[in-house]
Here is the input.
Amino acid sequence: MDPAAFHFLRLAENTDVDLSTIANVATALTVITGVAFGLVEAQRSRRARQERAAYAAVQAILSPEWMKSMIAVHSIPDGSSASAIEADARVLEATHSVGVILEGLGYSVYARIVPLRVVADLVGGTVRLAWRKLRPYVEEERRRSGSRKTFEWFQWLATQLERHSPGKTNLQVGAHEAYQDWEP
Here is the structure.
């Protein structure tokens, strides 16, 4: 027998520690290490998923169709009626495009796929402005259809941005001011 192993066994006999206790401690340490590793990996995986979702949201928003549509929506005068929006086919198409994209983005925030703070920093002002311009149209569509589901997640997102305002930017303070001291 190896002298070190013999010494360990004699030590175990002298200190009333048996091999089963040592095995139990080793098993417990292994389980604790495994759980800790699992928690760290789960957190890393969640962060990676959020980053992928945020990237997908950016890609959807930076499309030429989105940009063209948002310019048309921004040009709608405040307080315009549903009939005024419907009178211009280009504006109506832009309304639907913006609404559908923000509907998906709203649900992505609700499902915790995209963090609200990312949306707030990236397009928070745009979402609030779009809701202000399109609200009369959406409410009329809901009245006509008898369903409250028309652009429900778009409205939910605008409401959450108003409630929580997690970003440093808003309609009065742009990113160029709020983050002027940023360093890589």
Summary: Residues 63-173 form one domain. The chain has eight helices and no strands.
